[in-house]
Amino acid sequence: MNPFEKYSVEMINNKLDLTVLEGSYLPEIFPHREREIDLMAKTLSSVFHNSRPSNLLIYGKTGTGKTSTTTYVTKMLKEKDPEGIEIFHVNCQVFDSPYSILVEIANALTQTNEDKIPGLGWPMDRIYSELLKRMNRSRRFMVVVLDEIDKIIKKNGPDALYVILKLSDDSTVTRTSFIGITNDTGFLESLDARVRSRLNQESIMFPPYNASELRDILKLRISNISGSKPIDDSALNLCAAIGAQEHGDARKALELMRIAIEVSIRDGTTKVTDKEVYRARDKFEMDVMREAVATLPPQSKMVLLSAVVTQEMDSSMMFTGEIFENYKSICRELGFAQLSSRRISDILTELEDFGLLTTSTKSQGRYGRTRFIRVAGNYFDVKRYLVEDKDLEKFRGTGIGKQARIDTTVPLDSIPPEKIDEKIRDIWDATPSE
DNA sequence: ACTCCACAGGAAAATTGGGGTA
DNA sequence: TACCCCAATTTTCCTGTGGAGT
Q: Is the CB of A100 under 7 A from strand B?
């Protein structure tokens, strides 16, 4: 018997479809967001008076419904006038330079089988004029949603946005408006005045949900689940409470509920109780960490491995220098080229951003000023994820450039140190691409 | 008051590899 | 094929810094 039979049958028998609890699900009703939706609609409604809507800046913490309400409102706007309005949603975490964003928009504007602009190689001004050419042909209102807009500034400096926002001046035929979404409340201050005044023509703040608001959201979503699984009221309240604790995060509350239901199905319990929610929370934390580790670039994985090993050797505080030293020997051992200490410093910051490390800069007087670093959460779990990771387990040549593997049939010792990088390059060049 | 450790983190140069053109 | 342009990534070089030691 297929081992999945038991579980899938229950899914089918109960007609349980949990997609309404997933992050990508776009609801039709947004409880406690009436004010925000109205404000957004009021701003965008300028298109019906044939004038360009003001640019809009939306802020609020994660899971306060910024992205989904914006998606909903813009979708409704387009429904009102499908011919005259074009909506683009750009996730700036994926497309994080002005270059890639302009290319993305230009390629989305492709009509018929016009050539796609390659993601690399073209000069910036050519992309810009090509985009303008394509835009001015369509004779429409265009609304560009820049989701996680703070990422652009963070990666490219304050001038990056200026180039993009200039589009609304230069596109004479197509009137272009921007909606920026960010969860960084200090974002505005990091902009210089000209960009700020352009972007912040209107702004909407999304306040965090409180526990009772989260409960309303959960109730509404659950009522949309086709099929049923009994859910204790207290379990529902618990999800809401945890979500409220986490800066009013609806996404987390919904995700917890989804996992709790899955746990309940897997364990064959008759209903979802507090116990399932608590187990869901543990599973959630671990999944987040596992995912974060798995998606790291190979070099970051090695730095993290070094941190784990360093902490294991000496459970007291460790600092940047120790991690760098151990990182170097791990590289030697595994046959990876090593990056400079400056780069490792940045990677450590990145790992902190991912929540895998916690750091605090401390001054030790005579003994220098450095960051003290801890592996976040249970370092044994992190180590397990790393050890079972294929990048660190086998080092098959799936990396690129310097990240490729050294041929283990050639003892590392037989290569003079100054030739090692060259050797890696040779092997990489000889590696047949897939 | 002055030094100086061990870095943090900014700026600029250098390297890398895709893409275009001749 | 050789060569130039470009963005992205990494290295090199650099200045700044909090406070224990002297």
A: no
